[in-house]
Amino acid sequence: MELRSIKFIVVAIALGLALGIGVYTFVYAKGYSYMSNNPAACANCHIMNEQYDGWQKASHQAVATCNDCHTPHDFLGKYYTKASNGFWHSYYFTLGGFHEPIQMNERNTRITEQACRYCHQTMVESITVSHNPALSEDVSCIRCHRSVGHQH
């Protein structure tokens, strides 16, 4: 057999294995559920149980899902964020090294802050205008209202 054919077969086997393992993992981990807006999908992973339980008891449970607060409101931003978070959650869960309780990174903190300001725009504008417009960037909803989305 020619060296070129052997290389092709090795690459094809490696790609087939990677694809097979990826599909199996996606199905086993209920990856399809993360495409939904169902908050129960977030609790597929045991590390999110505390956040899910806290959300069920919190004031926003009746008006907001996980995606409303933790993903951008545009289609591409939402699914990019879901894919990125899903990859890194899986990576750290599989290889270890995740912080318990789970913590938001800087990008996800900005997304959540923007979500607060999106839904409560009128209130945020009146607070910053009445106090000091220069403070609008320093005002942080989640710094003072940490327990609104997830009761702690």
Concise overview:
The protein is mostly helical. It is 59% helix and 0% strand.
Structural class: mainly alpha
| Shape by Cα distribution | elongated
Q: What share of residues is helical? A: 55-70%
Highest-level CATH class of the largest domain: Mainly Alpha
Tell me about the biggest sheet?
none
C-alpha termini separation: 65 Å
Which CATH-level-2 architecture of the largest domain?
Orthogonal Bundle
The residue-averaged pLDDT reads 85
The DSSP helix count reads 7
Amount of beta strand = under 5%
Low-confidence stretches: none
Q: What name goes with the CATH superfamily of the largest domain? A: Di-heme elbow motif domain
Taken together, the total number of domains comes to 2
Radius of gyration: 21 Å
CATH topology of the largest domain: Multiheme cytochrome fold
What's the multimeric state? single chain
Order of helices and strands: HHHHHHH
Instruction: Count all strands and give the number.
Output: 0
